[in-house]
Protein backbone atom coordinates (compact mmCIF):
# COMPACT_ATOMS: atom_id res chain seq x y z
CA UNK A 1 0.00 0.00 0.00
CA UNK A 2 1.23 3.49 -0.85
CA UNK A 3 1.12 6.10 1.89
CA UNK A 4 1.09 9.85 1.44
CA UNK A 5 1.40 11.51 4.85
CA UNK A 6 1.57 15.31 4.80
CA UNK A 7 1.05 18.30 7.06
CA UNK A 8 -0.48 21.65 6.18
CA UNK A 9 1.71 24.31 7.76
CA UNK A 10 2.99 21.84 10.38
CA UNK A 11 5.99 19.52 10.41
CA UNK A 12 5.27 15.78 10.41
CA UNK A 13 8.09 13.85 12.03
CA UNK A 14 9.34 10.34 11.25
CA UNK A 15 7.83 8.92 14.47
CA UNK A 16 4.33 10.07 13.53
CA UNK A 17 4.74 8.81 9.96
CA UNK A 18 5.81 5.35 11.10
CA UNK A 19 2.96 5.28 13.67
CA UNK A 20 0.43 6.17 10.93
CA UNK A 21 1.79 3.48 8.58
CA UNK A 22 1.73 0.83 11.30
CA UNK A 23 -1.77 1.61 12.57
CA UNK A 24 -3.34 2.01 9.12
CA UNK A 25 -1.61 -1.12 7.88
CA UNK A 26 -2.96 -3.19 10.78
CA UNK A 27 -6.48 -1.82 10.35
CA UNK A 28 -6.51 -2.33 6.58
CA UNK A 29 -5.27 -5.90 6.90
CA UNK A 30 -8.34 -6.68 9.05
CA UNK A 31 -10.93 -5.39 6.62
CA UNK A 32 -9.54 -4.81 3.15
CA UNK A 33 -7.30 -7.37 1.54
CA UNK A 34 -5.88 -5.11 -1.15
CA UNK A 35 -5.95 -1.38 -0.36
CA UNK A 36 -4.14 0.59 -3.05
CA UNK A 37 -3.20 3.85 -1.35
CA UNK A 38 -3.84 6.01 1.68
CA UNK A 39 -3.62 9.78 2.02
CA UNK A 40 -3.32 11.28 5.51
CA UNK A 41 -3.27 15.06 5.94
CA UNK A 42 -2.62 16.75 9.28
CA UNK A 43 -3.44 20.41 9.83
CA UNK A 44 -4.02 22.81 12.68
CA UNK A 45 -7.29 24.64 13.28
CA UNK A 46 -6.99 27.14 16.14
CA UNK A 47 -5.90 25.05 19.14
CA UNK A 48 -6.88 21.68 17.65
CA UNK A 49 -5.12 19.32 15.29
CA UNK A 50 -7.15 17.96 12.37
CA UNK A 51 -6.50 14.60 10.72
CA UNK A 52 -8.10 13.75 7.36
CA UNK A 53 -7.63 10.22 5.98
CA UNK A 54 -8.68 8.87 2.58
CA UNK A 55 -8.13 5.22 1.66
CA UNK A 56 -8.71 3.87 -1.86
CA UNK A 57 -9.65 0.19 -1.98
CA UNK A 58 -8.91 -2.14 -4.89
CA UNK A 59 -12.65 -2.56 -5.47
CA UNK A 60 -12.77 1.09 -6.51
CA UNK A 61 -14.48 2.29 -3.35
CA UNK A 62 -13.08 5.09 -1.24
CA UNK A 63 -13.31 5.43 2.54
CA UNK A 64 -12.64 8.75 4.26
CA UNK A 65 -12.63 10.03 7.82
CA UNK A 66 -11.85 13.30 9.59
CA UNK A 67 -11.23 13.98 13.29
CA UNK A 68 -10.17 16.83 15.61
CA UNK A 69 -8.25 16.67 18.89
CA UNK A 70 -5.96 18.85 20.99
CA UNK A 71 -3.01 16.50 20.35
CA UNK A 72 -1.88 15.23 16.95
CA UNK A 73 -1.68 11.55 17.92
CA UNK A 74 -5.16 11.71 19.48
CA UNK A 75 -6.52 13.28 16.28
CA UNK A 76 -5.08 10.41 14.24
CA UNK A 77 -6.39 7.75 16.66
CA UNK A 78 -9.89 9.25 16.54
CA UNK A 79 -9.73 9.37 12.74
CA UNK A 80 -8.51 5.77 12.67
CA UNK A 81 -11.46 4.69 14.86
CA UNK A 82 -13.93 6.33 12.46
CA UNK A 83 -12.24 4.64 9.48
CA UNK A 84 -12.30 1.30 11.32
CA UNK A 85 -16.04 1.65 11.92
CA UNK A 86 -16.69 2.52 8.24
CA UNK A 87 -14.66 -0.42 6.95
CA UNK A 88 -16.27 -2.82 9.43
CA UNK A 89 -19.73 -1.76 8.20
CA UNK A 90 -18.59 -1.97 4.58
CA UNK A 91 -17.27 -5.51 5.05
CA UNK A 92 -20.45 -6.59 6.88
CA UNK A 93 -22.61 -5.23 4.06
CA UNK A 94 -20.54 -7.03 1.45
CA UNK A 95 -20.81 -10.27 3.37
CA UNK A 96 -24.52 -9.94 4.16
CA UNK A 97 -26.05 -8.24 1.15
CA UNK A 98 -23.68 -8.04 -1.79
CA UNK A 99 -21.72 -10.56 -3.77
CA UNK A 100 -17.95 -10.29 -3.76
CA UNK A 101 -16.88 -8.19 -6.70
CA UNK A 102 -14.47 -10.26 -8.79
CA UNK A 103 -13.34 -7.42 -11.04
CA UNK A 104 -12.44 -3.89 -9.98
CA UNK A 105 -14.96 -1.11 -10.49
CA UNK A 106 -14.82 0.31 -14.01
CA UNK A 107 -14.16 4.05 -13.99
CA UNK A 108 -15.02 6.45 -16.82
CA UNK A 109 -13.93 10.07 -17.01
CA UNK A 110 -16.34 12.98 -17.07
CA UNK A 111 -16.09 16.75 -17.09
CA UNK A 112 -16.75 18.59 -13.84
CA UNK A 113 -17.33 22.35 -13.70
CA UNK A 114 -17.54 24.87 -10.88
CA UNK A 115 -19.92 27.69 -11.73
CA UNK A 116 -19.94 31.16 -10.22
CA UNK A 117 -22.71 31.77 -7.70
CA UNK A 118 -25.39 34.40 -8.13
CA UNK A 119 -24.07 37.92 -7.90
CA UNK A 120 -25.31 40.20 -5.15
CA UNK A 121 -26.52 42.70 -7.72
CA UNK A 122 -30.28 42.99 -8.06
CA UNK A 123 -30.15 43.74 -11.79
CA UNK A 124 -30.77 41.05 -14.39
CA UNK A 125 -27.64 39.39 -15.83
CA UNK A 126 -26.69 40.14 -19.43
CA UNK A 127 -26.77 36.47 -20.38
CA UNK A 128 -28.21 33.30 -18.96
CA UNK A 129 -24.91 31.45 -19.52
CA UNK A 130 -23.21 30.77 -16.16
CA UNK A 131 -19.61 31.83 -15.59
CA UNK A 132 -17.28 28.82 -15.34
CA UNK A 133 -14.83 29.29 -12.47
CA UNK A 134 -12.98 25.96 -12.77
CA UNK A 135 -12.97 22.93 -15.04
CA UNK A 136 -11.74 19.50 -13.91
CA UNK A 137 -12.01 15.83 -14.76
CA UNK A 138 -13.99 13.60 -12.43
CA UNK A 139 -14.28 9.83 -12.15
CA UNK A 140 -17.64 8.16 -12.71
CA UNK A 141 -17.65 4.59 -11.33
CA UNK A 142 -19.72 1.74 -12.80
CA UNK A 143 -21.62 0.34 -9.79
CA UNK A 144 -24.87 -1.26 -8.72
CA UNK A 145 -27.30 0.96 -6.82
CA UNK A 146 -26.43 -0.72 -3.52
CA UNK A 147 -22.71 -0.23 -4.10
CA UNK A 148 -23.32 3.42 -5.05
CA UNK A 149 -25.18 4.05 -1.78
CA UNK A 150 -22.38 2.33 0.13
CA UNK A 151 -19.73 4.40 -1.70
CA UNK A 152 -21.62 7.62 -0.98
CA UNK A 153 -21.88 6.76 2.72
CA UNK A 154 -18.21 5.71 2.95
CA UNK A 155 -17.09 8.94 1.32
CA UNK A 156 -19.46 11.03 3.45
CA UNK A 157 -20.68 12.72 0.26
CA UNK A 158 -24.15 14.23 -0.12
CA UNK A 159 -24.46 12.99 -3.74
CA UNK A 160 -22.85 10.41 -6.05
CA UNK A 161 -23.10 10.21 -9.83
CA UNK A 162 -22.47 6.69 -11.17
CA UNK A 163 -23.01 4.47 -14.19
CA UNK A 164 -25.64 1.84 -13.35
CA UNK A 165 -24.20 -1.62 -14.16
CA UNK A 166 -27.61 -3.17 -14.69
CA UNK A 167 -29.10 -0.53 -16.99
CA UNK A 168 -25.87 0.97 -18.41
CA UNK A 169 -27.09 4.52 -17.86
CA UNK A 170 -25.94 7.41 -15.67
CA UNK A 171 -27.75 7.50 -12.30
CA UNK A 172 -27.56 9.64 -9.16
CA UNK A 173 -27.98 8.75 -5.50
CA UNK A 174 -28.27 11.51 -2.93
CA UNK A 175 -29.02 12.05 0.74
CA UNK A 176 -32.41 13.65 1.29
CA UNK A 177 -33.14 16.22 4.01
CA UNK A 178 -35.29 13.65 5.85
CA UNK A 179 -32.23 11.35 6.15
CA UNK A 180 -33.32 8.86 3.51
CA UNK A 181 -31.47 8.12 0.26
CA UNK A 182 -32.87 9.31 -3.08
CA UNK A 183 -32.12 7.59 -6.40
CA UNK A 184 -32.50 9.25 -9.80
CA UNK A 185 -32.77 6.80 -12.72
CA UNK A 186 -33.49 8.74 -15.93
UniProtKB/TrEMBL annotation:
The keyword Secreted does not apply. It comes from the Bacteria. The keyword tRNA-binding does not apply. Residues 129-182 form the Sigma 54 modulation/S30EA ribosomal protein C-terminal domain. Pfam families: Ribosom_S30AE_C, Ribosomal_S30AE. InterPro entries: HPF/YfiA_ribosome-assoc (IPR050574), HPF_long/plastid (IPR034694), RHF/RaiA (IPR003489), Ribosom_S30AE_C (IPR032528). It is found in: Cytoplasm. Keywords: Cytoplasm, Translation regulation. Its main location: cytoplasm. Associates exclusively with 100S ribosomes, which are dimers of 70S ribosomes. Interacts with 100S ribosomes. PANTHER family: 30S RIBOSOMAL PROTEIN. Belongs to the HPF/YfiA ribosome-associated protein family. Long HPF subfamily. NCBIfam families: yfiA. Required for dimerization of active 70S ribosomes into 100S ribosomes in stationary phase; 100S ribosomes are translationally inactive and sometimes present during exponential growth. This is Ribosome hibernation promoting factor. It comes from Thalassococcus arenae. The lineage of its organism: Bacteria, Pseudomonadati, Pseudomonadota, Alphaproteobacteria, Rhodobacterales.
Amino acid sequence: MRYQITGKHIDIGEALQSHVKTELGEMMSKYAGRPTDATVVFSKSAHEYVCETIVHLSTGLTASAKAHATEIYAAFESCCEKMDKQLRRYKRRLKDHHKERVEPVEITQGASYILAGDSTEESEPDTLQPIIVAEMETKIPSLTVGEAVMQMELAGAPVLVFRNEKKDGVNVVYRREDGNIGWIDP
